[in-house]
Specification:
This protein is α+β, with helices and mostly antiparallel strands. The chain contains 25 helices and 26 strands. The strands form seven sheets. It has a five-stranded antiparallel β-sheet with strand order 4-3-7-6-5.
Length: 924
């Protein structure tokens, strides 16, 4: 059945023209053409003037056009087509134009016409009338394919069209009347002037253009065909009434107006026929609707019975109620769910099963239902007859009457107590597993039976450098280190055979290309056909193990160095002190003097070796100050010039900003010399040594990538060469003690280890960059200081003069004690000696004349040298103290620095150094 809303093929203004419609329109045009051809030769035959014909003809024409405009406006409201609005406006324009032309026609109501019209007003209004209509038809043709406007936009365009036609027509008519004498004369003595022929010709062209455009815009509707017929009649009208005739009231004049009336009747007839057709269709539709209603009623009754049976047999509670909450139906499932029988529930308020604290919720639901809203799967709590609460899921829909008004609510309630408990447990378990998957630091992979990765944990970015989405969808073999691929596949086959894999190590490829060793656990799930892998990155573990081994090695070296340094420096102290005496004694015998010099040099080498070991083990006592690194680099470069040789160029690239570091400047100078000598050995054929300084800031990213680095500001000192470079395999070993690439007898292997120990003990950082064949660059990062550099006081010349003060010498080693006593006595001092702290305190109590306590730091017994000094100051607050030691432990050195106010004479030392330090201590 065709729907009444389907207007596209019901209204003639939108129905596509068929063959018979085209033939009918063509017949009308042909008949008009035949009549035009018959009347044209006699157009100039003068007939009697009948002014009443004008009034009758134009009144009929105005009535036709008004009816046509009304019908077209009606179809515009229905179809919302702008083209129809333009066409209706055209007919609305012609109706009042025809009436106004009648009023101003000369001799009809007055000699010159009403409204103050002149002799030319009627002719100009006729031309305005006849040019207006084709223009509106042209607009209709151009807008015929436009989309319909919205429903809300009908009233405004309709009002705008009517008012626009009225205002425009009024303006044109006023112009034609008010400026009658100013406009060109179109009629003279009742006959047409040449100007009239020009104006009519222009109107004829506009009409022809409208006809051509309308004919060109296909497909045509039935209305299009008859509008084209009207335009053809319009052309015949213009030709007979204004071009071919001679004057008013001749045959052409009368025939043209008859054509105009005929043209107005064509579209009106089509629209009237359209309305008659609509009435017939509406009658048929109503009859079909009546039959359909009867069929639907019978079907509704059957469906109602079926629905009633379904509702009664449903396992869900189905309840209907009014918008005020009164229960109107209650099925068996509702009785079982809530415990109330139908006789108890029907007619009662829904509050019967609603806890009191949820009444507001029910009112809100009924309000939403009243506005037509549907509510799906609303979870809430209801109350059983015995008082216990039930968790239910409600689906509530509005009940509508025949007019679509909401009159009640239909509610389906399902008990979800158990399912919600199960769902909650499942949700909790799923969330726990998801959290484990997302937060695990271990790599978790889920793959199908072919090894295709289905899921990848976010930890893949930290472990392998890939985001999960970069790995998902690819085969796991793409990420396995190729030599281990077969072993991994074997493990997967065993896993599918039912064996769980534990502690299987396999190496995957990082995104950067390096290998990452993982310890794997794997299992296969037959129900889901998936492999589950958990891989723990062993990189940090192995690095920690290596670091722990290095720490143990360092600790062992430190203990060994401390023990060796203590005893060895005691021995060297005696040797270096004695060799000075011996050298003076054999100065006159060259052969013995050379031997003494050889012994002295060997002792110096032994002392230097001990200092290097202590530096590497970070056991040396540092004396850090705020100093200008650039000044130190300039001084060191000047010292290096003769040492390195002319074949090595020294370039200084020093920062233009002040570079003040907090470190031991003497140790830094020694470190730079060590690095420069290594660089010299790497450039036997010559090259360039570059000394560089800069202020840098090491951020958190750098600290994360380099262990033991503290974020902060540093002074960077770089020593770079263009030598042979260091092979990559050796880079991790270059700072180890006794490691050297120079060959046997060409170095101790302690130079770089000493630099490493000094930098680390100073709270800094060291980094080495090297490329074989291109050179090496070693960068030292020392803590930057905000203080001004400390002015250098310069080193005093050794003061070998003695004095007459009394000095208490405390030394546990008999040989060293005897040697020191001899040396101090030779300086003129009065000396007392003790082997340990207890003896020293006893001597102090018995000898108040003691001016200086000269004590070793490391001594056996309950008290070391520092503790002895503290106890001595309690007895003698003014007593001065000078420490000596070959290995201080942590007695007077903390965090690699001498404690404030402490004077230390490191072992081994010579007589001039001893004399100078005693005088410094006594004069403080």
């Amino acid at each position: 059945m065709q729907s009444i809303e389907d207007t596209s093929e019901v209204l003639l203004s939108t129905s596509t023209a068929k063959r018979r419609d085209q033939l009918a329109a063509l017949a009308a045009v042909a008949m008009s053409a035949v009549l035009f051809a018959a009347a044209a030769p006699f157009a100039k035959v003068q007939l009697p003037a009948v002014p009443a014909f004008i009034a009758s003809y134009q009144s009929a024409l105005a009535l036709n056009d008004l009816m046509t405009a009304f019908l077209l406006f009606s179809q515009f409201v229905l179809l919302r087509s702008r083209a129809l609005l333009w066409l209706a406006s055209g007919y609305l324009f012609t109706a009042p134009a025809a009436l106004l032309h009648t009023l101003v026609f000369p001799g009809l109501y007055s000699p010159t016409g009403l409204l103050g019209a002149g002799p030319q007003s009627a002719v100009w209004i006729y031309m305005i009338w006849h040019v207006g209509f084709p223009l509106f038809v042209l607009a209709y043709a151009l807008h015929r394919r436009d989309r319909p406007t919205s429903v809300d936009a009908v009233a405004a365009p309709l009002l705008l069209a009517i008012s626009g036609v009225a205002i425009g027509l009024a303006a044109l008519i006023w112009t034609a009347i008010a400026y009658d004498t100013s406009l060109p004369a179109l009629v003279s003595d009742g006959a047409a002037t040449p100007a009239l022929k020009v104006v009519v010709g222009a109107i004829w062209c506009v009409t022809s253009a409208a006809l051509v455009v309308l004919a060109w815009r296909r497909p045509h509707t039935i209305l299009d065909l008859w509008v084209m017929v009207v335009l053809c009649a319009w052309l015949f009208d213009l030709s007979l009434a204004s071009l071919l005739n001679a004057a008013r009231f001749d045959l052409g004049y009368y025939a043209g107006r008859i054509y105009g009336l005929l043209a107005a009747s064509f579209v009106l007839g089509v629209l009237l026929a359209d309305n008659v057709g609509l009435q017939a269709r509406l009658t048929r539709l109503l009859q079909q609707q009546r039959r359909q209603n009867e069929t639907e009623r019978a079907r509704f009754i059957a469906r109602e019975r079926l629905f009633s049976a379904v509702v009664e047999s449903s396992s869900d509670a189905v309840i209907t109620l009014t918008l005020h909450g009164k229960i109107t139906s209650w099925n068996r499932a509702a009785e079982q769910l809530f415990g109330y029988g139908a006789d108890e529930a029907l007619g009662n308020d829904i509050g019967l099963i609603v806890p009191s604290e949820r009444r507001c919720e029910v009112d809100g639901i009924l309000e939403r239902i009243g506005s037509g809203e549907k509510i799906e799967h609303h979870e809430t709590v209801r109350r059983h007859k015995d008082g216990h609460e039930i968790e239910v899921s409600l689906s509530i829909s509005p009940i509508l009457d025949a007019r679509g008004t909401v009159i009640g609510a239909s509610k389906v309630a399902r008990d979800i107590t158990e399912s919600k408990r199960t769902r909650s447990a499942l949700t909790r378990e799923t969330e726990e597993r998801r959290r484990i998957f997302e937060t695990s630091q271990d790599l978790i992979l889920i793959a199908d039976s072919y090894g295709q990765l289905m899921q990848v944990s976010p930890s893949s970015l930290a472990v392998l450098g890939y985001r999960p989405e970069e790995m998902a969808g690819r085969n796991a073999s793409d990420f396995v280190y190729p030599p281990e691929l077969e072993a991994v596949r074997s493990q997967m086959r065993d896993c599918r055979g039912g064996r769980d894999i534990r502690n299987f190590e396999a190496q995957l490829l990082h995104k950067e290309g390096r290998g990452v060793v993982l310890n794997w656990m794997a299992s296969w799930s037959e129900p889901v056909q998936r492999h589950f892998f958990i891989g723990r990155d062993l990189t940090e573990k192995r690095a920690a193990e290596a670091q722990f081994r290095q720490a143990q090695k360092m600790e062992a070296v430190g203990h060994l160095t401390g023990g060796v340094a203590h005893d060895f420096n005691n021995i060297l102290t005696v040797i270096t002190g004695s060799i000075g005496i011996l050298a003076d004694a054999v100065a006159e015998r060259p052969e013995l003097a050379s031997i003494a010099k050889l012994i002295d040099d060997s002792a110096d080498r032994g002392a230097q070796l001990t200092r290097q070991l202590l530096a590497f083990a970070r056991k040396q006592p540092l004396q850090p100050t705020d100093f200008d690194v650039n000044a130190l680099m300039n001084e060191t470069a000047a010292l290096l010039r003769p040492t390195l040789g002319e074949h090595i160029e020294i370039e200084r690239v020093l920062s233009t900003d002040p570079c003040t570091a907090l470190a031991d400047p003497n140790q830094l100078a020694t470190s730079i010399v060590n690095l420069a000598l290594n660089a010299r050995d790497a450039m036997p054929q010559g090259g360039k040594l570059t000394l560089e300084t800069a202020n840098v800031a090491l951020d958190q990213d750098y600290a994360d990538a380099n262990a033991e680095v503290v974020v902060g500001d540093y002074v960077m000192i770089a020593v770079s060469d263009t030598g042979c470079g260091i092979p990559p395999a050796y880079l991790e070993k270059v700072f180890d003690p006794f490691f050297s690439t120079k060959g046997v007898g060409k170095g101790t292997g302690l130079g770089l280890s000493m630099v490493f120990g000094f930098v680390k003990q100073s709270g800094g950082h060291i980094k080495i960059y090297s490329e074989v064949g291109h050179g090496t660059s070693i960068k030292l990062y020392l803590p930057r200081s905000a203080a001004a550099p400390t002015a250098s006081t310069g080193q005093q010349a050794p003061d070998t003069t003695g004095g007459d003060e009394t000095i208490l010498i405390v030394e546990d080693d008999p040989l060293v004690r005897q040697h020191v006593v001899t040396q101090v006595v030779s300086l003129g001092y009065t000396t007392l000696a003790a082997a340990n702290a207890a003896e020293a305190l006893d001597v102090l109590e018995r000898h108040p004349e003691i001016d200086l306590l000269f004590t070793d730091v490391i001594m056996p017994g309950a008290m070391n040298g520092r503790q002895l000094a503290d106890a001595a100051r309690v007895l003698r607050p003014s007593l001065r103290t000078l420490f000596t030691s070959g290995y201080t432990e942590n007695a007077i050195v903390h965090h690699g620095r001498l404690d404030a106010g402490v004077l230390l004479l490191p072992k081994p030392y010579r007589k001039p150094e001893l004399a100078r330090m005693i005088r410094i201590a006594l004069e403080r």
